[in-house]
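hey so u asked for the seq, here:
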Amino acid sequence: MAWHTGEMRPRVLLPCLLALPALAAPRVQAPDATWITFTTAHYRIHCPAAFEAFGRDAAARVEAIHDRYLGLVGYVYPRPIDILILDPMMTANGMAFPLLRRPFVVLWKTPPEPDSAIGHLRSWPELVLTHELGHMHHLLWPARKPGLWRRWTEVLGPVVEKCPRWVIEGYATLLEGKLTGSGRPHGAFRAAVLRQWAREGKLTPYRALDGTGGFLGGAMAYLEGSAYLEWLERRAQDPKVFQGLWKRLASPRRRSFDEAFTATFGFTARDGYQRFCAEVTHDALELERRAEAGGALREGTVFTGLDGWTSDLSVSPDGGRLMALVRDPKKPGIYIWDLRAKAPAPEAPKDPEELPDHAPRVPRVPPTWRIPPLDGSLPWQPVWAGSQAVSFQLRLPDAEGVLRPQARRWTLRGGTPPAAVPAAKPPAFAWGEVDGVWNLKDAAGHPLTRTLSAAWDPAPTPDGKTLYFSRLTATGVEIRKLDPTQPALPAGPLPADPAPMAPETVLPRPDEPDPLPPPGPAPEPHPYRVGESLKAFSLAGYSVTPSGLSAQVGAGGNDILGRLNWQVLAGLGDGAGPRGGQTGLSWHGWRWAPSFQLFSVLARPSSQRFAPASGYDQERRGAELALTREDLGRPRTLLVPSLAFERVVLAGRPGVDRAVAGLRGAWGSWWTADRQGASLSGRAAWQSGRTGGQDWTLARASLAAGWINPWAPLTLRWEEGRLSGDPTALDRFHLGGVATSLLPESLDLNRLAQAALPAYTATGDRLRRLRGGVGLGPLEAYVEHSVVWDAAAPRPAAQRVAGLELDSDRLGLPLDVVRRVAGNLRFSLGIHRPLDGAMKDRTVVTLSVLLRP
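ran it, structure tokens below
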């Protein structure tokens, strides 16, 4: 077979490139995938076609759940609410966004693990719906008699604005229990946390109840918050007492949360919470006293204490190693202990008169091996692959940005040589709720432990003589061990106080019959329609730099998936501008997403406050058509072919036509192990154009390399560009200024952006930029050397700028949420110090807000 290596014509190449996506794996959750919608009386449930079973289950339940909210909450949102069903991380979650102009809910379809805080349930769709929709109707409670200004500007209602996080999450958790007869208020996990934290004197202080720090700190708003709200309801003896609180928060009197709370209950939230903690502590200590007096406990002995949550506890086939997945806040990963290693001898005092230290109550045995997070992913579901190797999975993003498991294997090195694998098969053990407490069970279902905390995740040795397990504490998890051949425990629950001060708190109330009717038939779905969820909103862009001041105001809109995005902007500015107008739209219902923009822009660099540039005042009118293909996996890639045409009028000169065809692309990836690693990314752009009958070609490329670390990430960027052919003044590279929302990106590629410098600080047919940056949280401190020059002339000295920038891309914002309420928005705020040129030794503060369709 012969292979012809001749030139492929563009008219053949382009259709081949466009056909490549058809050969790729089918898309599942992206906007261009196949989606369906279930429409009920009050909700639109949108889900990928692949998730139809979950969507159908949710649609069959949602109206019965909805019917209960008016009686429980006192208010239901009157207009349809959109519900999105996704599965981006293979974990259980739900999110409510009570935005008055576009309320929506996101449900993740993967059910929770049994050992999670939300593992006590009858049905995952039922539980997550009741919780998240409880948020919506509670937090969308409207202000009573709002003023004209509030009607025009409000984004959130008064309840969500004023309530602390523990009320928001605690109330939804309370509703979850009332509506399902199960969930966290009925589960062993919440009771174990309250019981153990109270026994150790570590119930969360009121000021920290909203926080997320510490072991399980982020869960306390749900667990302690819901228990405290139940305590308030019992004390008030009024199941609708919270409706009075919400009404007071929405009152025209504009009460704060503390004022409304005190008016509802007669005491402050802090004082009530402190009394609640005292009663819970009394009940927990009384339970401890009774249990210890009766000798009814069996909790094993401590092997080691850990600072994070543990799971996947198991012993190697040879019985010589113990493994656990540990979510330690500082050193997470798979921990493996060599059980045959000798314990280190206690250190003798150096001073013979110094008293020896007391042995710690809970020893800290460091692991012999630790498999750290790799490429930003914590190892998942580890299993032994023999006695010297561990198999696990990493959840890494695919082309849609969805985390998918990828198999990995890790071979252990060093340590005690493994012994022969025993022939005996380890006995089977289980764990579950025994009289409202997590405990271990043998194969016949008899309890092996009786703990005041929680015991789970049994890991027997192959000979069946030792059973390792996890036990909950207020500071982390202890790994304990016991002899499973001991006589069976006598039947019976813990000796609870018959008259507790806070009933059903340190021990859970049993599940109740499901108050909701069985799910009925779901409505038949129809293909997703953009128009059903299309919303409009106001837009605002802004830039203030040495080049001038410009604002863009207008309107935009999109549907809930983001398939269709549109915007119309009017640009206002000072003498330098830019001013004008822009309208554009993009369609993401195809793998190659097309976008189209029309624009009219007037800029006068000659009117700049600093370093006015004569000869470049211009009016530009035209259009751009572009296609965008973005893959969100590793590596992350972007490809944008574009065509643009514009009519440009320079001051005092006749207008010229300018046509540009180009291709932009970007690539980036990263490699990490244990929070350190490297990143590498690149961008390139090529354009071929004709301006007033003169042909030219533009090429730009940049490369960035970084050191990823938890202290101060470093990045080095290099960029080079050149023009060839016969470019005009309109086509030449120019240094300074920032991009504007009014002009398509492809027609601004000859700008070397630098917010601290005026536009047209330098022009030429070559450009070079070197930039070094140090990450300081969301900020980046940088030093930049930029130069634009003509190849025919000596290269001038670089324009140097140092500064500190806050960029929206570094904030980790949920961009899909931002897009639904404010359009495709990016912003940058900076403080700069130019070291050369007209701006030398000035401190320059800049702001840029950029909007794209």
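Residues 301-342+361-412+423-482 form one domain. The CA atoms of residues 696 and 726 lie 5 Å apart.
lmk if thats what u needed
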